[in-house]
């Protein structure tokens, strides 16, 4: 019987969760010829060999997922449904579902009350109770999900995020001109308390008097961070949103990349930085230790002085920087969408046997 994929993610802006879903669907299509992606009307197009896309039902994405999608599957004989986007139908049982992390539970102030309540119900009932297996993106996330919901290890499976290895980032066409010629620390200026971007601003600020270093923050400017960064003056640059090629160029040109999060289910940017040849300094949370291993320096995310010291180590010791770059490229190669798709296919075969 064909494998059906919940294609609601194709109606959403392609951020991390949506890219994870799309890359895995593409990978599944390279492994098997019976993949069917079901979508609401008006979804983005996914043109790939061996993948059939079928749009139907209501234009309201929530109603489509909770009503139209289960009804369509029952008419097809209740085949296995694969949910890759942190959601699942509440009234369908033959499914495997993905939960990237428990961020709305851990840092609820990032979200509206309505979103938190909806997430809790769909995660607990659709993703956990109504699904054969719960997929997630790291061993750290799997352990947290099992502890939170009281699941046995057999109910979870890890399908890692990955970075795109199909092009060589060292020879890409992107431009880092926005960062200028002065040495810089690169980080993401992302909103949300769990992102902890303020610690990077504070740590780099302590280096201004004794270095020419600047801080480059990628992403749509967050007003709170812009106020925090005002004391750095023109030594802090907010790039706004950049293309993938320009982001790779920014990684390549950085003195180091900082990943300061307090909480992540996986965290792709430090792997992208490693792949592009930037030495990585990361907060010492479990998932960073799992994913980055010995290919990064670590710091206490609550201690700006610790981060300042790690940045100074990279700047002062070229041999350390070169070693981190070499280890980082080797480490990032462990994460590949083809391998992740193969792991997903293994779970599908086991579940649908």
UniProtKB/TrEMBL annotation:
InterPro entries: Glyco_trans_1, Glyco_trans_4-like_N
Keywords: Glycosyltransferase, Transferase
Superkingdom per UniProt: Bacteria
Keyword Lipoprotein attached: no
TM annotation in the entry: none
Glycosyl transferase family domain residues: 177-329
Glycosyltransferase subfamily 4-like N-terminal domain: residues covered: 15-165
Ion transport found in the keyword field: no
Gene Ontology MF terms in the entry: glycosyltransferase activity
Coiled coil, from the record: none
PANTHER family, alphabetized: GLYCOSYLTRANSFERASE WBBK-RELATED
The protein, known as: Glycosyltransferase family 1 protein
Gene source species: Amnibacterium setariae
């Amino acid at each position: 019987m064909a494998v059906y994929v919940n294609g609601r993610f194709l109606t959403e802006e392609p951020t991390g969760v949506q890219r994870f879903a799309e890359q895995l669907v593409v990978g599944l299509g390279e492994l098997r010829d019976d993949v069917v992606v079901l979508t609401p009307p008006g979804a983005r197009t996914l043109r790939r060999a061996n993948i059939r896309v079928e749009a139907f039902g209501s234009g309201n994405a929530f109603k489509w997922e909770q009503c139209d999608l289960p009804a369509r599957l029952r008419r097809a004989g209740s085949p296995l449904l694969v949910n890759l986007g942190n959601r699942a139908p509440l009234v369908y049982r033959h499914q495997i579902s993905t939960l990237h992390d428990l961020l709305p539970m851990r840092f609820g102030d990032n979200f509206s009350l309505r979103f938190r309540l909806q997430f809790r119900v769909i995660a607990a009932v659709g993703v956990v109770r109504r699904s054969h297996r719960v997929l997630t993106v790291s061993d750290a996330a799997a352990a947290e999900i099992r502890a939170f919901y009281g699941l046995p290890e057999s109910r979870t499976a890890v399908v890692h995020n990955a970075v795109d290895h199909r092009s060589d980032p060292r020879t890409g066409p992107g431009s880092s001109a926005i960062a200028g010629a002065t040495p810089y620390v690169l980080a993401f200026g992302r909103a949300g308390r769990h992102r902890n971007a303020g610690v990077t601003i504070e740590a780099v600020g302590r280096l201004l008097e004794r270095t020419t270093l600047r801080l480059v923050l990628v992403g749509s400017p967050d007003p709170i961070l812009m106020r925090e960064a005002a004391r750095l003056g023109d030594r802090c640059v907010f790039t706004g949103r950049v293309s993938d090629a320009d982001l790779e160029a920014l990684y390549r040109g950085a003195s180091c990349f900082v990943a300061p999060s307090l909480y992540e289910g996986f965290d792709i940017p430090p792997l992208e930085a490693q792949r592009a040849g930037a030495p990585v300094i990361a907060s010492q949370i479990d998932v960073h230790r799992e994913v980055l291993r010995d290919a990064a320096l670590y710091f206490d995310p609550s201690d700006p002085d610790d981060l300042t010291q790690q940045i100074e180590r990279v700047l002062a010791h070229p041999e350390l920087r070169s070693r981190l770059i070499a280890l980082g490229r080797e480490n990032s190669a462990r994460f590949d969408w083809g391998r992740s798709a193969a792991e997903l296919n293994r779970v599908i075969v086991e579940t649908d046997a």
